[in-house]
Amino acid sequence: MKFEAVTIKDIAKALNLSISSVSKALRGSHEISEETKKQVHSYARKMNYKPNPIAQGLRKGKSKSIGVVVTNIDNNFFSQVINGVESVAHKKEYNVVISQTHESYDREVLAVQNFAARSIDGLIISLSAETKKQDHFKKLHDSGLPMVFFDRVANTINTHKVTSNNFLGAYNATRHLIQQGYKRIAHITSANTLSITFERLEGYVKALKDYGYPLDEACIKYCDHGGMLQSEISAALQQLLSMTKMPDAIFTASDRLSTSVFSLLKSKHIKIPQQIAIIGFTNSISADIFDPPLSTISQPAYEMGQTATELLIRLIESRRPVTSFEKIVLDNTLHIRESSRRGEM
Predict the structure, then answer these.
(1) Could you read off the pLDDT of 9-42 as tens digits, one per residue?
(2) How far is Cα 37 from Cα 27, in angstroms, rounded to an integer?
(3) Both 130 and 193 in a single domain?
(4) Which of 53, 108, 123, 204 has the fewest CB atoms within 10 Å, counting from its CB?
(5) 175 shares a domain with 111
(6) Whether the Cβ atoms of residue 261 and residue 188 lie closer than 8 Å to each other
(7) Whole-angstrom Cα distance, residue 266 to residue 6?
C-alpha cells in the first residue's frame, strides 16, 4: 500500500475549511480565530501532519535543498563530512542531496547538471581527481548559484572554501618519519591537479629541506585517479619497491591511498615498520586496529562539513550580493602509532 502524507488540502476537507484558512491557521496568522487555530492544530497533530519543506521553499522561490558533490561516500573522510553537512542543514530545515563522482570528471559534470535541473539552492563540492577544468561550476556560479568548495577546492572560482591545513599536516608527518630515523622517505599522492596534492607535496618537500634531506623526484608517485584504481596504487608502490635503493618509509596523501598501500605492503610480506614504515592522511575509524596500528594525519571532517554548510546557507539566505569570501583552514591531528615507530615491533 502506498503511503500518502496528510496535506493541507486533506485537513481543509476534513474540517470543512478553505485551504487558505488552514494554511494561515498553521502559520498562526492573526486573520484566523483562536478557536479555529486550535481546531486545525489539534487535527494536524492527530493526523501527524508534517509541512512539506520543498513546497514551502518553492512558494518562497527556494527549494530548501542543498546538493553535495563528493568522490565516494564509502570514504570515511567524506562520510564524516556529510554527517557534518546534515547536522547543520537539518537544523535549518534544508534537505541534503548527495551525488558521487567516483573521481570522474564526466560524472561530476553530469551531477552538477542534474542538481541545476532540480533547482537546488546551493552546492557543496569537493573536486574529482580527473577535474582539470571548472567551467561547469563557473557557469553556474556566474549565474548566481551559491556554492562552497571544501577539501579539494577550485581556486579559479571566487567563493567560500573550507580546507584543513594540508601543508602542516604533511610537514608534521614527514618530520615524524625523519625524527624516527628513516633515511629515504617516499611520497604516494593523488592527481597533481588537485589542491590537496599540491599543498601536501609542499609540506613533504619543506620537511625534507629543513632537515637536510635530498629531494628525489623518483620517490614521488602520483595516482591520477585518487586511489580509486587498485592497479594504479599497486604500480606506484611496485616502482618504489623496485628501486635500487628502496625507501624505508612512505608518506601517503589520502584516505584510500593510505589504507591500500598498507594492505599491499602486508600482502607482499613486507614488515611494517621494520622494512618500510608508513604514515598517511586518513580518517579511517579502523586505523588503530590495523596490524600494526596505522599512523595517520586525520582531518576535522565533521567540522569541515558543518562549516561549509553554515557558509553556504549564509550565501543562500543573504538579501544582498556577497562579494567578500573566506578561506577557512582547520587544524589536522597527527596520530603516531606503531606503523611509523622505529624499533617498536
Answers:
(1) 889 999 998 888 888 888 888 888 999 999 989 9
(2) 9
(3) no
(4) 53
(5) no
(6) yes
(7) 57
Q: What does the pLDDT look like over 230-249, one tens digit per residue?
A: 999 999 999 999 999 999 99
77, burial (CB in 10 Å: exposed 0-12, middle 13-18, buried 19+): buried
Separation CA 5–CA 256 (nearest Å): 42
Q: Are residues 271 and 253 in the same domain?
A: yes
Do 325 and 160 contact (CB within 8 A), yes or no? yes
SS3 84: helix
Domain-located, residue 3: no
Using CA atoms, how far apart are residues 145 and 315, in angstroms rounded to an integer?
A: 9
Tell me the C-alpha to C-alpha distance, in Å, between residue 249 and each of 216, 242, 262, 271, 273.
Answer: 14, 14, 11, 11, 8
Number of domains in the chain: 3
pLDDT tens-digit map of 106-131: 999 999 999 988 889 999 999 999 99
C-alpha cell at 30: 492573526
Residue type, 118: R
pTM: 0.81
- Cis peptide preceding 214, ω within 30 of 0: no
d(CA 162, CA 224): 23
In angstroms, rounded to a whole number, what is the distance separating the alpha carbons of residues 162 and 166?
Answer: 12
On whether the CB atoms of residues 99 and 115 are closer than 8 A, the answer is yes
